[in-house]
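Appendix B. Chain record.
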Amino acid sequence: MTHVTLVLVCGPPASLKTTLINIVQCIINKFVEQNSTLRKLCVNKIKLCIENKFMQIDSNWYFINFDKILFNIETEVINESWKQYRLLIANIIEIYIKNNLNLPPPSNELKFLIDYSSFKYAKIIYDRIYQIFYCTKNIPSNNIIIVLEDNFYYHSMRYRYYQIAQCFNTSFMSIHLQCNIHTTLERNKKRNGNVTEQSIHNIQSKYELPDIIWEKNSMIIDTTYGFHLNTIIQFFQLITNVRLKPEKMINFLFEQQQQRDESTKINQTNVIHQTDQIIRKYISTYLKEKLNTISNVQMKKVYAENVNKCRMMFLEKLRQNQIFFSNDESVNSSIFVDNVRCQFICFMNENLDCCTDNNNDR
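Structure tokens predicted for this chain:
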């Protein structure tokens, strides 16, 4: 019987998440000479672990680094709809787990593929995760360990994976790397692809520590001075213990997923309705001023019709997930209103001539 363990490696930028992953990879691969820099840093720790045969775990390991999954597209993904892309990644992993546990696909699996087909970078992300799962060389094993590396600073970012563990009676654990802000900022300056200081301060201040109820299998590591051998050993001990205590299966999780899907539909309907109201209000004010500059009555009518066509085109693209708004703001907030207006104005400026040409063709 196949058993899956989900391991979340969490922490702010420059908290040594990737370093921990590299150490783990060195150990499980009986590292020899592949990474000379890392070898100098941790070869003694690795040798001790291997010589003691502490971590001879017969498992297939898969490492998913969100930065690598989003390489060269991260800025666009964040601007488009980062929350939805996070959900996409979780859903792809969920489908992989289902396939390995030989479970029948849920009724919403095809729907999932269709729903996300309109996301600009969905195929790139899917292909990159597919490469990890199906092109990684592994020995035959009934034990699968999936390690996810990202900041995961909100409970909600981690809870989705806990739900997956509940759904399939698999194991779940989270590792949280913490470091003082001064050291983090100094490390960040020396990294390739460093992030802004503001982003680091933001994540540090908002970071939510493990929930004692559902994140009971967690470990907090202070990485200010790097890693100690005991820390690495505790990491593998926790994995060993967690594998013996899978999350209790919740049979009605698929029903909960259907309820979430329905809630998403309702929310999308509300967003479209509210967006339409905001645009109508803007158009009303805009046309009052614009039409005063047009003397010909027929041209006034045509111009107003074209602006309204832009409104309908904009809403249709919103329905087709080709236009996105941030999920962080309420549809009633001033930020949301400003965002809608700004996007519609840009859209109208780009498409108004197109609508005019269509009218002329008639």
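Further analysis of this model is presented in Appendix C.
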